[in-house]
Amino acid sequence: MAGALTLPEGTAVVCIGFMGAGKSTAARSAAQALGIDCVDVDRVIEQRAGKPISAIFADEGEAAFRAAEERITLELLRSPQARVLALGGGAISSAAVRAALGAHLVIWLDIDLDTAWERARDTGRPLARDRDRFAQLYAEREPIYAALANATVPGARSTGMRPLLAALAGVPPDTTLLWATSASGDYAAFIANGLLARHRFWPAAITGRRFLVTDGRVGGLYGGLIEPLEGRVAIMPGEQSKTVAHAEIVWTELARAGMTRQDLVVALGGGVVGDLAGFCAATYQRGVRYVQVPTTLVAQVDSAYGGKTGVDLAEAKNYVGAFHQPAAVLVDTGLLASLPEPELAAGYAEIVKTALIAGGGLWERVRGGAAPADEQVIVACARTKLRIVAQDERDQGLRQVLNLGHTVAHAIETTTGYARYRHGEAVGLGLLAALRLSGQDELRQEVAELLRRQGLPTVLDGADPDAVVMATARDKKRLGEGPVPFVLLQTPGDPRPGCTVQARDLIAAVRELAA
User: Fold this and answer.
1) Alpha helix positions (H), 373-474
2) Mean pLDDT of the chain
């Protein structure tokens, strides 16, 4: 693949993932793109044993199979020959294999549990006969895959690995690449400490003149990391700049600078800049490309991904906007070091929200005291959001779970003129209301304590709770004359969108915040 990924001598591309994820298909696609050999480790094991894996399990037991799998996998990983390997789903259970993978380019084929079960059951796989055991294995292995992966790609893209491999060209060491998919297009999200400040990384596949949209503070700190620039537009920091009037300023400045449809907008800043710049990119000359460069924790864990762009009205938040996926997202977690503590804390509320939605290992890590700027947590939050967006880009169903706590949060922001609370601070209060409405009293207490530890407000101050309740009726999720639907939480990892909430319960939950 000319001008793209070059593998150092002795380095293999290794596809890992759960049963049914499409590892073998992805390995063949990658090998074809790179012009090198493809080896399916399971097939090598079967050839040497002279029988299928199911027979090895039946005749010799799983322990014997794992021993052979480890021996053969290590042998293939140590070969100096450039190749693409498809590992068995359980090969990463070996500590020796995990250690050996550190010298190679590891691509995780990510698949959800239900799809994996549908693909694997009734295929004769020894470990795909019992649904409960299958689910247990999935939960055990998922964090291992995540920890080993240099790049994550949804299993649905296993037949087309060429764009992913092109995106990996020139990527600095220790960078995590998340391949984002949606109905309207795919893109790469690159996450690393020092991605911009130390490595000055820019994706080779993203060409065109760059026009920066930022705020005055962030532009002064980090604008030089995006050079060369053809033009700059700076807005005032803060939610008050996320308006149609400011969008007109950006459009006008881009036109005066001579931006064309072949060029691209670079959104350097937090959620306000990302939403505003993305909206301007979606509408300028009926749509141009843009790259998100998030510099706040809120943006790095949430708003920079998924293509929701827009501006606020005085009547309600995010009422004018468009779905417009970025061409790439560049996340330098080291830039968070310049954030004031209140901004970092505000981003933490979005981490808690995402962890409650994801459940599992992410929730356990967060409730266990993970630091707000923990890079693994940032990656896990981004992966969680991208998984959801891949299934529902246009917010028609599943994606609405990402609004957990946001109905009340947006109402708080609106009624206080977008000036009293940072977005993340309002989200924290909204989460407490949502958990009360969900009947999760103990969990609400735990979340409140997590928020307090970061200095986030857990009491609504400076806002009329009844006005907040009334403002929820203008939430953009409302359809027709019916009540606004809420996202409630059955348990961490089990959010429920589209829930009806009784008016008296909502009033009680919001008034409790002000008590």
Assistant:
1) 375-391, 406-415, 423-437, 441-453, 465-472
2) 96
Question: Starting from the edge strand earliest in sequence, which strands make up the sheet with 210-215, in order?
Answer: 37-40, 83-86, 13-17, 105-110, 151-154, 176-180, 187-192, 328-332, 289-294, 264-269, 210-215, 231-235
pLDDT of residue 515: 84
Cα-based distances in Å from 35 to 2, 44, 54, 82, 84: 10, 21, 32, 10, 10
- Residue 54 confidence (pLDDT) above 50: yes
Six-digit token string for 408: 């009340």
Give the model's pLDDT for residue 453: 97
Question: Quick check: helix, strand or coil at residue 31?
Answer: helix
Nearest CA to 259 among 222, 229, 297? 229
- pLDDT, tens digit, for every residue of 335-348? 999 999 999 999 99
- Give the residue carrying structure tokens 């649905």: 156
* CA of residue 94 relative to chain centroid, distance: 28
479 to 199, 344, 410, 416, 510: CA distances (angstroms): 47, 34, 17, 24, 22
Contact 266, 256 (CB under 8 A): no
Q: How confident is the model at residue 4, as a pLDDT? A: 65
> What's the mean pLDDT in 361-390?
96
DSSP 311: E
Q: Quick one: pLDDT at residue 1?
A: 37
- DSSP E strands in 111-221: the ranges are 151-154, 176-180, 187-192, 210-215
Bridge partners, 235 (sequence order): 215
**pTM for the whole structure:** 0.96
Q: What tokens were used for 157?
A: 């893209």
Residues 190-203 have a mean pLDDT of 97
Q: Pick from 439, 451, 449: which is nearest to 490 by CA? A: 439
Count of residues making up the chain: 515
Q: What is the pLDDT of residue 10?
A: 84
DSSP E strands, 160-288 = 176-180, 187-192, 210-215, 231-235, 264-269
Cβ-contact 248, 193 below 8 angstroms: no
Q: What is the mean pLDDT of residues 218-245?
A: 96
| CA proximity to 89, closest of 141, 166, 51, 130 | 141
Residue 199 has pLDDT above 50, yes or no: yes
Q: Are 348 and 356 in contact (CB under 8 A)?
A: no
Helix (H, G, I), strand (E, B) or coil at 191: strand
Q: Are the C-beta atoms of 153 and 179 separated by less than 8 Å?
A: yes
Beta strands in 276-345 (DSSP E): 289-294, 308-311, 320-323, 328-332
Burial of 306 (0-12, 13-18, 19+ CB in 10 A): buried
